[in-house]
Amino acid sequence: MRSASTQQPGSARPERAEPPTGVARTMPLMALDRVPWRDIQDSTGCAAAIPLLLNGIAWGDADTARAALDDLRKRICQFGFVVEQATAATVPFLWELARLPHVTCRPQIIRLLKNIADARQWETTASAYPKLLNRRENPVVWERAARQAVRARRGELKRLMADEDTEIARATTELARSLSE
C-alpha cells in the first residue's frame, strides 16, 4: 500500500538560485531578454537555449558551468572556428561573465572569445566559393559581426590581464595578442 504524500500541492514557483552574496543585482544577464533568441540560429537550430546556458555558466557550480560552456561552445563556435548567427549576440554576455569573480570557468570563456576573434572559416570558404555570399543567410556576415563584437569590448582586456588568477591572465594575454593582429 502506498502512503499519501505529506507535501501540499501548490502553485508555488520553484525557488530560483540567488546570486552569491556580494554580487550586484544589476547583472549582465539581466539583458538576455532583449535578444530575440527564438528568431536567430545557432548550430542546432533555434538559439532559444542560449540564455539557459549563459545562466548555467553564471550561477552553476564548477561542473554545471563547465558543461553549460561546452554546450554553448558547440552552439556558437563549433569546432573552435565555425561561428553561427547567434554568436555575435552572445559575445557581450561572455565578456560580462569573464569579468564576474564568482564564475568558475572564466579562463575557458576567454579562450572561447579568442576562438571567435580568430574565426575565419566562412570567409575562407567564401573566397573559394563566392556563391556563398549570395545566400539569404550569409555566414560571412555572421563571422564578421562576431569578431567585431569581441573587438568592441577589448577595453576589458587590461583589467582581465591584471587578474590574480594566472590562468585568466594568460588566456587574456592570448586573446589580446589575437586582437592586435
List keywords for this structure.
single chain, 181 residues, mainly alpha, two-stranded antiparallel sheet, 8 helices, 51% helix, disordered N terminus
Strand content: under 5%
Strand order of the largest sheet: 1-2
Gross morphology: globular
Q: Any low-confidence stretches, pLDDT <50, length ≥5?
A: 1-25
What's the helical proportion of residues? Answer: 40-55%
| Strand and helix order | EEHHEEHHHHHH
* DSSP summary, beta strand count: 4
Sheet bearing the most strands, described? 2 strands, antiparallel
* Quaternary state of the chains: single chain
Q: What Rg do the Cα atoms give?
A: 19 Å
- Average pLDDT confidence is 84
Provide a descriptive summary of the structure in words:
The chain has 181 residues and is mainly alpha-helical. The protein has a two-stranded antiparallel sheet. Strands 3-4 form a two-stranded antiparallel sheet. The longest helix has 15 residues. The chain is globular, with a radius of gyration of 19 Å. The N terminus is likely disordered.
